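Incident log, structure service

09:12 report received: a user says their structure output differs between two submissions of the same chain.
09:20 pulled the input from the user's history:
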Amino acid sequence: MKHLSDIEIAQKNSMVHIKEIAAKLGVDEDVIEMYGKYKAKLPLNLIDEEKIKKNNLILVTAITPTPAGEGKTTVSIGLTEGLHKIGKDATVVLREPSLGPVFGIKGGAAGGGYSQVVPMEDINLHFTGDFNAVEKANNLLAALIDNNLQSKCCKLNLDPRTIHWKRVMDMNDRSLRNIVVGLGGTANGIPREDGFDITPASEVMAILCMSTDFEDLKKRLGNIFIGYTFDKKPVFARDLKAENAMAILLKQAIRPNLVQTLEGNPAIIHGGPFANIAQGTNTIIATKMGLSLSNYVITEAGFGADLGAEKFLNIKCQSAGLSPKAVVLVVTIRALRHHGGATKEAYNTPNLEFVKKGFCNLEKHVENIRKFNIEPVVAINAFSSDTYEEIKYITDKCKKVGVQAVVTEGWAKGGKGATKLAKAVVKVVEANKSNFKPLYDWNSPVKEKIEKIAKEIYGATAVDFDKKAKLNLRRIEKLGFNDFAICIAKTQKSFSDNELLVGRPENFTVTVREIEIAAGARFIIPILGAMMRMPGLPETPASENMTIDNEGVISGLS
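09:34 re-ran on a clean worker, output below:
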């Protein structure tokens, strides 16, 4: 029998009107702003800090992933459906997909199989225009910077050599990483080196995700660090009077988006930073919105727990005063085979020895989560190539370290396939074993915070700082940004900064190449290895397998 693709499953689903989804949350249809029948914006005044304190936040993360990912979004949605099946009030709160991965490798990011959010095509393609708004706000600031260089009056004396603000576009396009602007004569601006980042890597995206309200958004936009004047004075976006115009472009984007799961349960989708080069979690506003309207909120953080979860806990939770009650650690047997030495061609071939060797990766992530004083639940995301012996080995090994491992079949069965996981999560929450504590204090020295993450979370024995990174540390000190959070940019393929070191690397040193400043987001961004903020397309992009017919029906978007 032919298996339906994700998009075919989504297209066969009968959605209910978005006002019915709002009603499930206790929100009247007159309060929401509808974008057609199946999407709506939620007003910020629905956020209730007293209700937030009483409800339960669950983070879904994963072991170090293979390139295809291990299904965090699918598990997050399936878990939400499963909680509803056992009589709990739950909402899934997710990030918005970027067009880069949609047309690049993944081909879509709205869950999979029978654990999806819908309307799938809309969510993956433009959605409610939030990414477009972030892009325009970012590029407005870029235009204002170049205009100030050109202007004869009101000049800030900005040194073009110190400008680090780049334009952005939500597409993988390696040709735009390094460009020259201002060519063609004096009427076209001042020639200088520039470049593009992908939109999820924009500081504006990070700011949108870290803001608590509209006033906070404006303040953070004004605090964006641009560069220096010729006499070495720092220049910020507020010096260009940019923050209000940028905020105007983000007027609608700051409001979370309400959609639904395949089983007609609430889903909030908002913001979309990558986790290897940004903080990798949805907006604080969306998470607080979910916690104001539901007893259980399920959210995910990008890539492995060493990236998304670490940033979620140390950055987002500290900043917003959030305290997760449990962490779901997604593992696939194919990923354990990978970490045990299997080649890409053998990921789906049963091999207990590879699983045994690869278990060390899962074990390290369990240890890391417990460093935050949170109890994990291991979710084995089921694949048809999994064997009983491999599953039993994982569940037995997890039991020995005091962690419950549960097979979840949300992809194949929706909520019915995730009820065991839902019960395991509720058990952890009701046992009240978690009492979140961050790994570091934001007020600690920058170098100390970086070293703590590298040694405690990655398992590094030492951290080397290149000459440029040392200069950056002195600049951070002089600017007074020592009390910022740390948002490390590194490969998602390894605990280390070397993507070839799979499993649980030991006796390695990580090297900080340089350190960027995101003053509006209140991040310090140490860059490990050759990280790029503008990805390139793979040799065979996902876009090549997509089609659309005369009726507008899309295929291949999965």
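09:41 both user submissions now match this output. Likely a transient worker issue. Closing.
09:42 reviewer note: The domain at 446-528 is CATH 3.10.410.10 (Formyltetrahydrofolate synthetase; domain 3). The first helix runs from residue 6 to 12.
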